[in-house]
Design goal:
The protein is α+β, with helices and mostly antiparallel strands. It has two domains: 101 residues, Tumour Suppressor Smad4, CATH 2.60.200; 108 residues, no CATH class. Strands 1, 2, 7, 8, 10, 11 and 12 form a seven-stranded antiparallel sheet that branches. Strands 4-3-5-6-9 form a five-stranded mixed sheet, with no helix packed on it. The longest helix has 17 residues. The N and C termini lie far apart (77 Å).
Length: 259
C-alpha cells in the first residue's frame, strides 16, 4: 500500500514579501514575522502618537497577513488602483492578496504610507478591458474643482513626499492661504467635502469642531491618498494659472452642498 504522504505534492511555500517605506526596501522571508511601529523591524519615527508595535506582517497557512497589533490606531489598506479599501482596526487582520498593497495610517497630525509587494498575488484583476465609455468609476465620488483643490492643498506635503515617508499636515488656515481663500470659505468647503464622503460611507469625517478638527483633516487626507482621489499629478493644480478663478466659478455654479 502506498503511503498517502508520498503521493501528496508538497504545499507551495508563500514567497518572500518586499516592504517599501521612505525609499527603503525590507524583505520578509517565509515563516518570519515583521513588525512596524516606533520600534521593531521597521522603526518608522519617534512619534509618541504611534504605537511601539503597531502592525505586523506574518504568515499563516498559504497566505501572508497584515495584523493590527496596536490598541488605538487604525490603518487604511487598499490595492494599488484604489478599487478595494478596508479599515484595519485594532486586533483585526487582513490577508495580503494583491500584487501591491498600500497601507496608510496617521498618528497625531502625521500621515505615513508604505507599500507591500508580493510576487505571487492571490488576487488578479480579471475585469474585461475598459469599453472606452468613461464609466469605469468604481467606487468613485465626483468632486468639483474647488473640492479637489481643497483636498490637494491639505494633502500637498504627503503627495510631495520624497523619501521621508511622512509629513505634517497643514492647518486649515495654512491650506486656505495656499489657495488664496478666506478661512471661512475653506472651512465651509471642508464641511461640504466631508459631508459628501460621509454619505458615501467613509468613516471618521463627522464630529465636533474642537478635538475632531485635526482628526477630520487627517482622515480626509488618509482616505484621499489611499483611494487615489488625489495623486501627485494633481499637485500641478495648485500652481496652474486660472485654476483659482475656475474654482470660484465652479463654486458659484454649483448648489451649496456641492460648492
Amino acid at each position: 500500500m502506498t503511503d498517502v504522504n508520498e503521493t501528496m505534492p508538497p504545499r507551495a511555500e508563500s514567497p518572500a514579501l518586499t516592504i517599501e517605506f521612505a525609499g527603503e526596501l525590507f524583505t520578509v522571508a517565509p515563516g518570519d514575522r515583521f513588525t512596524i511601529g516606533r520600534e521593531g523591524d521597521l522603526s518608522i519615527d519617534d512619534n509618541l502618537f504611534l504605537h511601539r508595535h503597531f502592525l505586523s506582517i506574518e504568515q499563516s497557512g498559504d497566505l501572508w497577513w497584515l495584523v493590527n497589533i496596536g490598541s488605538r490606531l487604525s490603518a487604511t489598506v487598499t490595492d494599488t488602483d484604489g478599487r478595494v479599501q478596508a479599515q484595519l482596526a485594532p486586533g483585526a487582520r487582513l490577508p495580503i492578496v494583491f500584487g501591491v498593497t498600500t497601507v496608510v495610517f496617521s498618528a497625531g497630525p502625521t500621515t505615513y504610507e508604505l507599500t507591500v509587494h508580493t510576487p505571487q498575488p492571490a488576487f488578479r484583476d480579471t475585469r474585461p478591458e475598459a469599453l472606452g465609455d468613461g464609466e469605469s468609476t468604481i467606487g468613485s465620488v465626483p468632486l468639483t474643482l474647488s473640492q479637489k483643490l481643497l483636498i490637494v492643498a491639505l494633502a500637498e506635503p504627503v503627495l510631495r513626499r520624497e523619501g521621508t515617508g511622512m509629513s505634517e499636515l497643514p492647518t486649515s488656515a495654512r491650506a486656505a492661504e495656499r489657495l488664496g481663500w478666506t478661512l471661512t470659505r475653506f472651512n465651509r468647503k471642508l464641511d461640504n467635502v466631508c459631508d459628501k464622503l460621509d454619505r458615501q460611507g467613509v468613516p471618521g469625517l463627522r464630529g465636533g469642531v474642537t478635538a475632531s478638527a485635526t482628526n477630520r483633516r487627517v482622515r480626509l487626507v488618509e482616505h484621499a491618498v489611499a483611494s487615489r482621489v488625489v495623486t501627485r499629478d494633481d499637485l500641478a493644480l495648485l500652481d496652474s494659472p486660472g485654476v483659482a478663478d475656475a474654482a470660484s466659478a465652479d463654486a458659484a455654479d454649483r448648489p451649496k452642498d456641492d460648492a
